[in-house]
Design a protein that fits this description.
two-stranded antiparallel sheet, 8 helices, mainly alpha
Length: 178
């Protein structure tokens, strides 16, 4: 797991070596295990590790590469959280998967399963995204794996699909009469 040494030392990524040393000495005195008032061995160890990495120019360059990659991942996460379209799209994909599995179960109650690759193709959802949706639907108890390893809708999933269908139908009827 990535540890943000700049945040840990409460310094800017642009801090010079003198600032790193000054801040380290301050925290080292504060958190050293021998300090009876504020000593904290694990915090001291983290601060020493951050200091040792950032004080060495070669280690700092290597760390800064990881730091920038981590910043990029955090930015992407924040952007996705800000984009409500992604969550709406997830709901549509999950409803589509339930519908596909619903129809398959209705067509052949004794052979209700659809394989991973076929679900990927039929839903138009790439495997890396499909895994999230299948995990969610399975965790909710709406789908499960049958004996042959394929996914199939459960009784709870059928109830969920029927509830969603009734709500969608009611919404459409209300929109047409208004």
């Amino acid at each position: 797991m990535f540890i943000d040494y700049y945040e840990l030392l409460e310094i800017s990524p642009n801090a010079n070596s003198e600032t790193i040393e000054r801040v380290f000495r301050y925290f080292a005195m504060r958190y050293h295990p021998d300090n009876q008032d504020t000593g904290d061995a694990s915090r001291f160890s983290e601060i020493a590790e951050a200091h040792n990495t950032l004080k060495d120019p070669l280690n700092r360059v290597q760390y800064d590469i990881q730091y920038k990659d981590n910043l990029k991942l955090r930015r992407e996460l924040i952007e996705e959280v800000s984009n409500t379209k992604g969550i709406e799209r997830d709901g549509v994909i999950q409803a589509k998967l339930l519908s596909l599995l619903y129809v398959k179960r209705r067509q052949d109650v004794n052979n209700p399963g659809i394989g991973d690759e076929e679900l990927e193709r039929m839903s138009g959802c790439p495997r890396e995204h499909l895994e999230f949706h299948l995990w969610y639907l399975k965790a909710k108890g709406w789908i499960g794996r049958v004996e042959n390893g394929m996914f199939a809708i459960t009784v709870e999933g059928i109830d969920r699909a029927n509830t969603e269908h009734r709500r969608d139908t009611s919404t459409r009827l209300l929109n047409h009469t208004g």
